[in-house]
Amino acid sequence: MTALPTSGRAWHLVARPHGWPKPSDVALREVPVAAPGEGRILVRNLYFSVDPYMRGRMNDVKSYVPPFELDQPMIGGAIGEVIASRAEGFAVGDHVLHGLGWREYAEFPAEHGTKVDASLAPLSAYLSVLGMTGLTAYAGLFETASFKEGDAVFVSGAAGAVGSQVGQFARLKGASRVIGSAGSDEKVKLLVEEYGFDAAFNYKSGPVKDQLKEAAPDGIDVYFDNVGGEHLEAAIATLNTHGRVTMCGAIAQYNNTGPATGPRNLALAIGKRLRLQGMLVADHYGLKQQFIKDVGGWLVSGELKYDETIVEGIENGFDAFLGVLRGENTGKMVVSIGG
Questions:
Q1: Model confidence over 89-124: pLDDT tens digits?
Q2: β-strand pairing of 199-202 with 220-225
Q3: pLDDT per residue over 70-79, tens digit each?
Q4: Burial of 128 (0-12, 13-18, 19+ CB in 10 A)
Q5: What confidence tens digit (pLDDT) does each residue in 190-200 have?
Q6: The whole model's pTM is what?
Q7: Cα separation, 104 vs 65, whole angstroms
Q8: Where is 116: in which H helix or E strand?
Q9: Structural domains in the chain plus CATH codes
């Protein structure tokens, strides 16, 4: 029997960032690894997720999830292999999705893990297209935004993990037009040529409002917001009567050090009878079975495409996180730490 590890590395938050997170705000430290207790499993992590929402957890403010604790390992989605089990239903070699990322080893109650099948999809996909980001896109479009066939849809951050799926889901369900914004010409090309968007633009190339108006001459019915700021203001100006907005993220302001400027044209929502609604994926777990059925089918048929940006090595985990905040990822950003 192979000896179990007695220690492993984990990323800790050691200071609350002011503005953009700095390397001095975190530390990669060696921590003890315990053998699993009764009803628990020990997992060697293979992949962990880095996501924009984690920036908010670095602040000591009340939010929908508790902040990261100082001088404690950070947490987030992860996929790993069971290396020791004292829990019924979990065997050594099983692959498990769980919430203790940012570390090499995780020991936790078995009920906090979900077994996944590595033969159905690459393991990293359970952190992306078949995981939280995929369900966020699915729920935010179909439930929060009440998408219906024939809607014209605009997605910001459209080459990211969530946005890239929103646009494709809308296309597959009969959108009249799908428009996306991204931060480089290469990503714009990807949206149109690979993901099947009808139009896309580089938001760095000119005012978002002007570029959106050109891409959507007949207006839009749904806006899926991953960015906030100028994008939200442009969408409000372009939305048709009874348009709907899913407010999923506001990455443009996550590192602001002062108050964010709200949309200056919010009064338009009155006359247009717009609906702007925030969404959290945790409110939509009831959709999981339908989500897996639809998305799994589209993946098998080849109708749905997805990309991942894989960063190798736990020591590069914080740089990968900063890369997400800068928009350096195409699709989901995942850190690979498996051997």
A1: 999 999 999 999 999 999 999 999 999 988 888 999
A2: unpaired
A3: 999 999 999 9
A4: buried
A5: 999 999 999 99
A6: 0.89
A7: 23
A8: strand 114-116
A9: 7-128+307-336 (3.90.180.10), 132-282 (3.40.50.720)
